[in-house]
Specification:
single chain; alpha+beta; 4-stranded antiparallel β-sheet; 22 strands; elongated
Length: about 400
Amino acid sequence: GTTTKTGLIQGGTPRVTKDYEVGASARSAERGAKGGGYPIRTPVIDLVEIGAGGGSIAWVDSGGGLRVGPQSAGADPGPVCYRLGGTEPTITDANLVLGRLNPDYFLGGEMALDAEGARLAIQEKCAGPLGLEVIEAAMGIVEIANTAMVNALRRISVQRGYDPRDFVLLAFGGAGPVHANRLAAELEIPTTLIPMSPGIFSAMGLLVTDLKHDYSHTLIERLERLDLGNLEESYLGMEAQGRQALLREGVHPEDISFLRQLDMRYVGQSYELPVPLQEGLLDTVLLAGVQERFHQEHERAYGFNAPEEPVEVVTLRSTAVGHIAKPRLHELGRDGGDASSAQRATRQVYFAETAGFVDCPTYDRYRLGPGAAIQGPAVVEEMDSTTLVHPGYVATVDKFGNVFLTGSGQAG
C-alpha cells in the first residue's frame, strides 16, 4: 500500500547485502541506491524499495507533469474509493476507474469501493489541470507507477549482473498481481507466478522461515597466505556461538546447520563480494575452488575479472540455521481443466495494449482447479488480491492452485 519492494532469489537463496539504511528511507544501499536514512552494516535481505504502492498519491507538479508518490494516503484515510475521508487520488483509485478492481468484491465483498468518488478525485486533481480525459489520466497514473516498478526490478537484476529473462517473476501482496503481468512484459520475463492468497504471502513467510543467526570475523589476508588452522578455528568459534543461540531458542541439535562464506576482493579494491565456502576439509584445493568462484562472481557482477591479480579475504562469515517444520502445500485434488465454471461475470477493463476498454471475463480463483487455462484479457479475483491477465497472455493453474502467466505462444 505504501511501497513496492523487489528482491532476487537465485537457486532458492535470496541475495543478502550488508548495507542498509533505516529511518527516513529504509532500503538497500548497495551500488548507489542510497536514500536519506542512517546507514548500518548488518546482513539483511537485499531489497530495492520505491515509493509506489496502492496508496501512492497521484499529483501534478509545478511544471505541469503528472507524478505518482512517494507520498502515500496509507490505510487511514487511504484512497478516495475507501470512503474513509481520503481526498487525494491514488494508484488504487486509478485501477478502480480502469475497471481492474471490482468495486463490489474488494476484500471478498466486505468493503465496497466508491468508483465515482475515485473518478471525481482524478478529474479534479490530475485530469482537469492537465487537460486530459479521466481515463487518460488514470492510465497515466498506472503507467508511471509501472515504470517505477520496472526500474526497481532492473536495479535488483540488471544492475546486479543478472538477466531478468532467466528468472520467474513472483508477485504477491494485495496489489502486486494487478501490475505483475505488465511488468513481466516490459522486462521480457517469460513466466509470472501468483501464489495462493498473495495478500498474506509475506505473513505466511514470516511464520515458516528458518531461524538464522549471522556472525562475522574480520580477517584481511591474501588468499594464498591464509593459515587454514586459524581459519577453521575462527569458523568453529562462530558456529559454537550460533549453536548455543539456537539451542536457547528451542531448536533441536539435529535441526541445526551452518553456512560459511568469505567476503573477497582483488587487492587494492574498496568493495568485496561474498563467496560461499563449500563444505569439506579446508585445504588448498578447496581454496583454489573458492578463488575460481570469486573470479566468476566478479565477472558476473561487474562484467570483467582479473585472474592474474592477487585476491584477498576481508571477512569470514558464518550463518547458523535452525530448521523449523514446514507445512505441506495443499493440493487442490480435483480436475479443473474447464475454467468456464469459475467465471463470475464480464466487465469493461481498460488496457494500454488495446487503447480502450474491452469486455473482460472475471473468474473466482477459489473455483479454478488444476489444469484450468484462461486466455487474456481476463481478471482473476480472490478475497485478498486481484490478478490481471493482459491480452496476449494466458493464465494456467497448477495442482497447488498457483497461477502462472505466460505469453500465449508459451502456453502448454
